[in-house]
Amino acid sequence: MRTQAAFAPPFNTDALPPRDELRARLGLRVDLRTTPPGTVSFEALPDHRLKVHAGAPVRGACRTTQFVYTRGDIDIFPAGQSDVWEEETENTSLVVRLAPALLRRAAEDMGLNPDRAGLEPRHHFRDARIEHIAWALESDREDGHPGGLLYTESLGLALAFHLLGRYPAQDTSVRGLSASQLKRVTEYIEEHLDQNLSLVRLAGVAGVSESHFRALFKRSTGLPVHEYVIQRRVERARTLLLRGELPASQVALEAGFSHQSHMARCMRRVLGVTPTSLVRGARAR
């Protein structure tokens, strides 16, 4: 009679050592598990799980499919998925668990809908990036976490980014900035047009990473950040020139251009007219 081994019981932070408890609260947990020969059952849990084979080769079968696990072979079990298979000999695997909150956090930075951030089920495959992060997490755990929480968190996020980028659930959808994010950014741009705006600062206003801000902003407005800012500066310059209260050199600075010639070039490109012809045409009406 074969022994049934259930993988990865639900999180119980009360039963964890203090350091592991803190990491579990980050949404990440790493366990090295050994199962005896026989039926291996993977229970449905609310967490996403990776199983990386860490021991000697093991023969197994699932329904009508036979396979051989070798070191580094990977399975992805999305949240809520269960599975069962047979193995001929003892099996040692590294099980990495990622809470949905960790994937949501990564999805927000990637411009994915966090409410649909999930993984596709995938079995018996190789991925050098996943292996690298998984072994780093296991080494850190085995050594007593010398890198601290920041190191663990950075590895967990790197893993989540990679998984969502390579193995997203089919219904994961790309989005732009939320309405509130876009409102904050555009209002900030309007209030600081006369200053030296930076991607780092605008990404901070939106609350996303700089690496994803460019794509999110373009999806929301249809324009690259730089082009949007230029168009808003041209519009402000046009308004100030038509008022006729300031010389063109001062208008350029008020609108955020480095000098009058820069303003003229941008106005010609965006509006098709120079500052001089714009003012002359207004006076002739």
TrEMBL record:
Keywords: DNA-binding, Transcription, Transcription regulation. It comes from the Bacteria. Pfam families: HTH_18. The keyword Transcription applies. Residues 183-281 form the HTH araC/xylS-type domain. PROSITE patterns: HTH_ARAC_FAMILY_2 (PS01124). PANTHER family: ARAC SUBFAMILY, HTH-TYPE TRANSCRIPTIONAL ACTIVATOR RHAS-RELATED. This is Helix-turn-helix transcriptional regulator. It comes from Pyxidicoccus parkwayensis.
